[in-house]
Specification:
The complex is a heterodimer of chains A (395) and B (765). Chain A contains 12 helices and 16 strands. With 395 residues, chain A is an alpha+beta fold. Chain A folds into 3 domains: 127 residues, Beta-Lactamase; 126 residues, Beta-Lactamase, CATH 3.30.450; 98 residues, YNR034W-A-like (Profilin-like). Chain A has a 6-stranded mixed sheet. Chain B is of the alpha+beta class and 765 residues long. In chain B, 36% of the residues lie in helices and 24% in strands. In chain B, the strands form 5 sheets. In chain B, strands 9-1-18-19-20-16-17 form a 7-stranded antiparallel sheet, sandwiched between helices. A 6-stranded mixed sheet of chain B has the order 15-22-21-25-24-23, with helices on both faces. Chain B has a 5-stranded antiparallel sheet with strand order 2-3-8-6-7, covered by helices on one side. The longest helix of chain B is centred in the last third of the chain and has 30 residues. The radius of gyration of chain B is 28 Å and the shape is globular. Classes of the chains: A alpha+beta (395), B alpha+beta (765). Chains A and B meet through α1, β3, α11 and β14 of A and α10, β12, α22, α23 and β23 of B. β14 of chain A pairs antiparallel with β23 of chain B, so a sheet runs across the interface. Chain A: Pfam families: Fuz_longin_1 (PF19036), Fuz_longin_2 (PF19037), Fuz_longin_3 (PF19038).
Chain lengths: 395, 765
């Protein structure tokens, strides 16, 4: 896989990033030509050049305010590349705010204003583009989540008085306050990504929330509670040192809970739940809260193949389950009220995948290829029941 | 069903023979005779084809004919006792209107007439003894014929337009309903407008096409399409590098632009497309395939075909309101392939009039598509194939082989010369738009089908009555097995000949033997031979028609019973049909004596008219008697809704037949099915690509490691509609490079993969 992501302001590059094995930097002449082609089309009675496809790849042009983003990839679908470009733009808003982007007077100054965390975020987004669901937040399932959630709600109300708190373990959400889930999923995604990029000394940073507050900055505070567990919160004027003490005091009697939650990594769901031996992995999506759990290690065998399985599940979701051609499509027959797709499956030489889609959840399960096709539907339903029937797992 | 086949072949006059006498022997021949209106096309009562399948064949052979000695026995007075009691004539802006008040004397006894298989009259004709034709766009109902004893005999004339009955404006949809209501009323009123003679004559007029631009000239009459639109729907720009300045220069000139440059904004953007192509080539060593641009909220797809080392560019533009990017990609591939087939090099030719017409034809075909409807299987270059019973296929094969061998009748001097002059590459036979027999390899078959598609013949079959086609055209197949040792079609002469008779179309590909070419007067000499050959083809078609192949193909295709597919959105249909069947049975018992008499006479007539053909015809019908509808699923209910089999290896496509007017409309299900297929097809293509890479290289690249490579993919759809909830599966499966798609009810307990297997092993037919 290779990705090129470029951002230009009036033909001047703001950044130019690449990702992939053995790929070379694009010469400036190429970037400039791609930018000028877009400009030329726009000069011709407002024609917007949006994309060009070639064998196994595509180029996308996206214009946001005064910026032109160009993305080139040889393996990503149009939907994923467009989402990556959008996230890159919002990451810029997160750092400098919308007003700044609307009124860029000097591109060099803009480049200086974008802190190193911005570039790290772009690189991470590009790394994750293929292996992540960019429009969802990754989380874990654990028995301790409901207790931690109660504690977090108390923490939000009394000492901190911030509605936006979230608890992470290795960049995955354990739980979050209701206010945090009210934020747009992109805002949440970028906050989580930013928090995981911040180094030890820099845990207090101003952020513009691209959807909620693109022009007025909030303070993002990150506090490590134990190794591997971090709490993030958006707050007002309090001193960082005070907040640090407050956090440690409040959570010190819950360390045991946090440790238990942390060891759910990398399994990502409780040890007590067991599935059929043909199940290799699953991807569970909460449609309402826009979050997902992916398990790569059901049989507890650590091997290289595990990440491969995760990627297959994500690809299955992106390319087959998350369909566009049934959504928003007008059928000429007025007797039709609604068309939904409730199940999907595919069979390959190496494995099988099955997905169930209900009102609130989507579950994609990866199976060994030996499983009979007709049995997958029952087993997937069984996996869904086991994951959601446990009351202690609040998700 | 079109009525083209209903015309007696006695009345069929081979007009193209007359045309040939005037023909000046130029480099190609196009002669198409078509009719824009379809007599009482949609007014017929729907007959149950489900339960009557077994008997239909036999009865078809005994169908009474309109002409001949039988007419005096068969013209009867209408069963309905009607009388005009009041006449009013009044004037209005568009002319005069007549209002007839009709007394229905036997209104209490009247009930809806029971449909009879051998009665092909419309309800209007049964009641009033007068027939209607439908005007352009189904807007007007014009009286075509007033029979003896008709109540209109004194008051109305042929050409008058029926406007309303009992105050209700009549339409195609409500006419039968209104009629069924009024026959039970004591009095009712009919309002008719006096005819505009010119309009009626114009509608009756036959359309003759002798060159490609004629199709465009007569498009309104032929297809009743409203093509006057200011938006850009389709565009073609051919751009070549200007090498006259210098070899290294980047100066490009436009060779052709459709629509003309001044109306074609995509032509103004050619610089952008050239730049993108150049960047892609220089940076990634690859050419772009398709560029999307957005103009005032409308997306346009611009496809690239780049040739001659990047010196020739063909840009085709498509409006997204008339098709998606999938459509654009496939239409481009097909159109360019077609142009390559009929021109040695269309980029350097001088006369662009014909090319302009072909662009217009593509535009027309885009317009006809409902913007909401999805195209899928019809976009591929696979030919829609219908597998007829073996007995029929054998007869067709015999006829085609005889033509190819040219040994089927007494030799004479001109035939001897013809035999030495040409070698036949292959031939095929279509029934309307469906291939029923082919002696071509897949490449030739694909090319011939693209030719028929782009010459608008398929579209004409859909929209109007195609009475006669005679075409010969020199073609330039890129890959073919030449009889002249050298496989270069620009040096050898290959000709495509097409002749139609009724609904049958025959295509033959010929190659001129190089050792016989006379350098003097080559063109006219060849054309004379080719015209002779067209006559030979015509004879074969006459023979096929005479032995009943056309009728049998029609019945077979319209019955669509092998395998039988169910339309889930028409749940009431089977009940209704059962009722109809019962009525028909009762009717047949009542009219037994009548019918026997008719049949007897009709049999005589058939024997007289078809002379030697009757014996064959009868034999074939006998073979059909044992054929029963075939269901692929087990259990009492048929749970198979739809299927499509794309065989890229053979170049054919088999799909459940859903032609309008032949089976209940299945449009909604087909639309949902195609949306599903489109999604699955892209993934199955990935697998084919991956397998090809794997066969070349042992190592799997990183790009393919996470790719979805299914050999079977499926989705379960739930449709909420006014009658409840319906769940069904859409499954796509890959067999080598063959793709099979099945749609079936989700409630079935069977392992439906078996169905896919049975279909893949050619269970159709």
């Amino acid at each position: 896989m290779s990705i090129y992501l470029m951002c230009l302001h009036n033909g001047t590059p703001i950044f130019n990033k690449k990702r992939g094995e053995n790929i070379e930097n694009l010469p400036f002449s190429t970037t400039a030509s791609l930018s000028s082609v877009h400009l030329f089309c726009q000069a011709q009675t407002n024609i917007d050049l949006t994309s060009t496809q070639f064998d196994d790849g595509l180029i996308l042009w996206r214009e946001y305010e005064t910026l032109l983003f160009i993305g080139i990839s040889n393996n990503l679908s149009e939907k994923v590349l467009a989402s990556l470009i959008e996230k890159a733009y919002y990451a810029m808003v997160l750092h400098v705010g919308l007003n700044e982007i609307k009124n860029i007077k000097n591109s060099d100054r803009m480049k200086r204003e974008l802190k190193s965390t911005f570039y790290q975020m772009i690189e991470k987004l590009m790394d994750f583009a293929e292996n992540d669901l960019l429009d969802y937040n990754e989380s874990i399932l654990c028995h301790e989540a409901s207790l931690i959630q109660q504690k977090l709600n108390e923490f939000c109300e009394l000492p901190i008085a911030s509605p936006f708190c979230f608890m992470l373990t290795k960049s995955r959400l354990i739980c979050a306050s209701l206010g945090f889930y009210d934020l747009h999923v992109t805002d949440r995604k970028l906050l989580i990504l930013l928090l995981t990029q911040l180094n030890v000394s820099q845990k207090d940073i101003p952020v513009f929330l691209p959807h909620k507050s693109p022009n007025i900055a909030y303070r993002l505070i990150g506090q490590s509670l134990i190794q591997g567990v971090t709490i993030g919160l958006l707050c007002g004027q309090q001193k960082y040192e005070d907040l640090e003490i407050l956090c440690q005091d409040f959570w010190q009697d819950s360390y045991e809970l946090l440790v238990k939650a942390e060891i759910s990594n990398p399994r990502n769901f409780p040890q007590t739940i067991e599935f059929d031996s043909t199940v290799l992995g699953f991807l569970l999506i909460n449609k309402h809260n826009k979050k997902y759990v992916i398990s790569k290690n059901i049989q507890q065998v650590a091997s290289k193949r595990n990440s491969h399985r995760m990627n297959i599940l994500r690809t299955f979701f992106n390319e087959a389950v998350d369909l566009d051609n049934f959504k928003n499509s007008s059928f000429y027959d007025s007797s039709i009220e609604n068309i939904t797709v409730n199940e999907h499956y595919y069979v390959s030489d190496y494995h099988k995948c099955h997905a169930i889609i209900d009102e609130n959840y989507i579950l994609c399960v990866l199976y060994l290829s030996v499983i009979p096709t007709y049995a997958m539907s029952f087993l997937t339903q069984d996996v869904l029941n086991k994951l959601l029937s446990d009351k202690s797992i609040e998700w | 069903m079109s009525n083209a086949s209903d015309c007696s072949f006695n009345s069929y006059s081979p007009d193209f023979k007359n045309y040939i006498e005037e023909y000046n022997g130029s480099s190609s021949l196009i002669y198409i005779r078509a009719h824009s209106i379809d007599h009482h096309h949609q007014l017929k009562q729907s007959l149950n084809t489900d339960e009557l399948f077994r008997n239909e064949f036999k009865r078809m052979s005994l169908r009474q004919r309109d002409k001949g000695i039988l007419s005096k026995f068969t013209s009867k007075k209408s069963k309905f006792d009607l009388k005009v009691v009041e006449r009013n004539v009044y004037s209005h802006d568009n002319g005069r209107a007549k209002e007839l008040k009709i007394r229905n004397i036997s209104f209490k006894e009247n009930k809806l007439p029971k449909p009879r298989l051998n009665d092909h009259r419309s309800l209007f004709e049964i009641i009033f003894n007068a027939s209607l034709i439908i005007g352009p766009e189904n807007r007007k109902f014009i009286i075509d014929k007033i029979n003896q004893f008709s109540i209109f005999e004194k008051d109305l004339n042929v050409g008058d337009t029926i406007k309303s009955i009992n105050g209700d404006l009549i339409t195609v949809d409500n006419l039968n309903h209104i009629l069924s209501k009024v026959i039970t009323q004591k009095y009712f009123k009919i309002v008719a407008e006096e005819s505009c003679k010119d309009e009626y004559v114009a509608m009756q007029e036959e359309i003759k096409i002798t060159k490609v631009p004629d199709v465009v000239t007569f498009k309104d009459k032929l297809f009743q399409l409203e093509t006057e639109s200011h938006e850009l729907i389709f565009s073609l720009n051919v751009i070549v590098k200007n090498e006259q300045i210098s070899e290294d220069s980047d100066d490009y000139i436009t060779v052709f632009s459709y629509p003309p440059k001044e109306n074609n904004f995509l032509h103004k953007l050619k610089g952008s497309f050239l730049t993108i192509a150049s960047i892609m080539k220089n940076t990634f060593n690859i050419y772009p395939r398709i560029t999307n641009i957005k103009v005032h909220n409308t997306i346009f797809y611009v496809t690239y075909t780049i040739r001659n080392g990047g010196n020739e560019f063909i840009f085709l533009g498509f409006n997204s309101n008339y098709g998606g990017s999938f459509d654009a990609t496939h239409l481009t591939k097909n159109f360019v392939k077609f142009l390559d087939y009929i021109y040695p090099n269309f980029i350097i030719m001088n006369d662009f009039e014909q090319l302009n017409s072909f662009c217009e034809i593509v535009k027309m075909q885009l317009i006809k598509k409902n913007s909401d409807a999805i195209n899928f299987e019809q976009l591929f270059s696979c030919v829609k194939f219908v597998s007829l019973p073996k007995e029929i296929v054998l007869r067709i094969n015999d006829a085609l082989s005889e033509l190819e061998a040219m040994d089927y009748r007494n030799w004479n001097e001109s035939l001897m010369e013809l035999f030495g002059k040409f070698s036949i590459i292959g031939s095929c036979l279509y029934f309307k738009n469906s291939l029923i027999c082919s002696h071509f390899n897949e490449i030739d078959l694909e090319n011939v089908d693209l030719f028929i598609r782009h010459m608008c013949l398929k579209f004409m079959f859909e929209r109007c009555i195609l009475k006669e086609v005679a075409i010969w055209q020199r073609v330039y197949p890129r890959e073919y097995q030449s009889y002249n040792m050298e496989n270069d079609s620009t040096k050898n002469k290959v000709f495509l000949l097409i002749v139609s008779n009724g609904n049958l179309i025959m295509c033959v590909l010929l190659e001129e033997n190089s050792f016989n070419i006379n350098p003097e007067n080559i063109e006219s000499q060849s054309s004379n031979y080719l015209i002779n050959f067209l006559f030979e083809m015509k004879d074969v078609l006459d023979h096929l028609k005479m032995v009943g192949i056309e009728n049998l193909a029609k019945i077979w295709i319209n019955s669509a019973k092998r395998p039988l597919c169910k339309n889930p959105f028409e749940p009431e249909i089977s009940k209704k049909n059962q009722l109809q069947l019962k009525n028909i049975k009762e009717e047949s018992e009542d009219d037994e004596s009548d019918r026997d008499f008719d049949s007897h006479i009709d049999g005589q007539s058939t024997r007289q008219s078809s002379s030697g053909g009757f014996e064959n015809e009868d034999l074939i019908y006998k073979d059909f008697e044992d054929i029963i509808p075939q269901t692929l699923t087990f259990g009492a209910d048929n749970v198979l809704f739809h299927f499509t089999n794309l065989d890229f290896k053979e170049g054919i496509m088999i799909t459940s037949l859903c032609e309008k007017y032949s089976i209940p409309p299945n449009d909604l299900l087909v639309d949902i099915f195609r949306r599903g297929c489109l999604n699955i097809h892209n993934k199955l293509q990935n697998t084919i690509k991956f397998n090809q890479i794997l066969s070349r290289e042992n190592r799997i690249s990183n790009n393919n490691k996470t790719a979805m490579l299914p050999k079977e993919q499926a989705m379960l759809c739930e449709v909420k509609w006014e009658k409840g909830i319906l769940n069904f599966w859409i499954i796509g499966r890959l067999f080598g490079i063959k793709e099979l798609y099945v749609c079936h009810d989700a409630r079935t307990p069977q392992n439906m993969v078996e169905i896919a297997f049975r279909l893949a092993i050619n269970c159709c037919g």
